[in-house]
Write a structure and sequence with these properties.
about 250 residues, globular, binds pyridoxine-5'-phosphate, alpha/beta
Length: about 250
C-alpha cells in the first residue's frame, strides 16, 4: 500500500538537550542555549526540540520559557506524563508536546510509551493540551496496534521510536545487529503506513545519524524527524578547530 502523504519535504526538529548537558556539567553560562537555537534555526531546521526531564539534568524550566519567547521556529517539548511538567507545558504553550516514558536512572529515553496501560490518563491529558491549542505527539514503539490506539485516543501524531533500528545499523548490538536493523526497519515501515492510513501524523526519532536516517527517509513516509545526539556530537568535531584557534589567539595575542 502506498501511503498518502500530504507534505513534500520532511521537517527536522533538532534536539538541543545535550547543549544544556554541557552547560549543566559545570554550571557555566555557556554554551548559551538560545545561541544554539538560533544557529539551528539559521541552518534550516524547522523545530527546536527539548526534553524537560523531571530530574532537570539538562534543560531547565527557564530555558523552555526563553525558547518559547525567542525562537522563530516551532517548539516541541518532550515530557513525561507528570502533573508538575504538564502544568509547566500548559504555561509555556509549545507548538507540540511529545509525551515520553521517563525513568530516573536511564541514560536516555529507552522505549516507547505504554499507551495501553495509560490509555485513560493519556486521553484526558491530550484533551487538556488541545484546550490550550497544543498539539500532542506520543513517543511509541513502531507497532501498528499502538499507532492505532494513539489515533483512537486523539493524539495528533505518533513519534516512532527508532532507537533499536539505529543501534542495529550502527552495529552496536553485536552479532544480532543486522537482523535487528532489518526487523525494526519493517516495523517502522508498517507502523508508518498504518498511521498515514488512519490520518495521524507520523514522526520518528531516537538514535539517528546522517547514515542510518537515509534508509528511513527513502521510505517517504515520515513527516518529521527529531534528532539530537548525533548532531551535537558532530558539532563538537566540526567546531573544535575554530574553538582551539580562538583560544590560541587569546593566549598569543591577549
Ligand atoms: N525523540 C525523542 C522522543 C527523544 O526522547 C529523543 C532523545 O531525547 C530524541 C527524539 C532524540 O534522540 P537522539 O538524541 O538519539 O537523536
Amino acid at each position: 500500500m502506498k501511503a498518502q502523504q500530504k507534505w513534500l519535504i520532511p521537517r527536522l526538529g533538532v534536539n538541543i538537550d545535550h547543549v544544556a548537558t554541557l552547560r549543566q556539567l559545570r554550571g557555566t553560562p555557556y554554551p548559551d542555549l538560545l545561541t544554539a537555537a538560533k544557529i539551528v534555526e539559521t541552518a534550516g531546521a524547522q523545530q527546536i526540540t527539548v526534553h524537560l526531564r523531571e530530574d532537570r539534568r539538562h534543560i531547565q524550566d527557564a530555558d523552555v520559557f526563553a525558547l518559547r519567547k525567542k525562537i522563530g521556529i516551532a517548539l516541541n517539548l518532550e515530557m513525561a506524563m507528570s502533573p508538575e511538567i504538564v502544568k509547566i507545558a500548559h504555561k509555556v504553550r509549545p507548538d507540540w508536546v511529545c509525551l515520553v516514558p521517563e525513568k530516573r536512572q536511564e541514560v536516555t529515553t529507552e522505549g516507547g510509551l505504554d499507551v495501553r496501560k495509560y490509555r485513560k490518563q493519556l486521553g484526558t491529558m491530550i484533551q487538556g493540551f488541545h484546550k490550550k491549542k497544543i498539539k500532542v505527539s506520543l513517543f511509541v514503539e513502531p507497532d501498528e496496534k499502538v499507532v492505532a490506539l494513539s489515533h483512537e485516543l486523539g493524539a495528533d501524531a505518533v513519534e516512532l521510536h527508532t532507537g533499536r533500528y539505529c543501534m542495529g545499523m550502527q552495529k552496536t548490538l553485536g552479532k544480532k545487529s543486522a537482523a535487528v536493523a532489518k526487523a525494526e526497519f519493517k516495523r517502522i515501515k508498517d507502523a508508518a503506513v498504518r498511521g498515514i492510513g488512519l490520518g495521524i501524523h507520523v514522526h520518528a526519532g531516537h538514535g539517528f545519524d546522517c547514515e542510518n536516517v537515509r534508509k528511513i527517509v527513502a521510505l517517504d513516509l515520515i513527516e518529521e524527524y527529531n534528532i539530537g545526539h548525533a548532531i551535537v556530537c558532530r558539532a563538537v568535531l566540526v567546531g573544535l578547530d575554530r574553538a582551539v584557534r580562538e583560544m590560541v589567539a587569546a593566549i598569543v595575542a591577549p
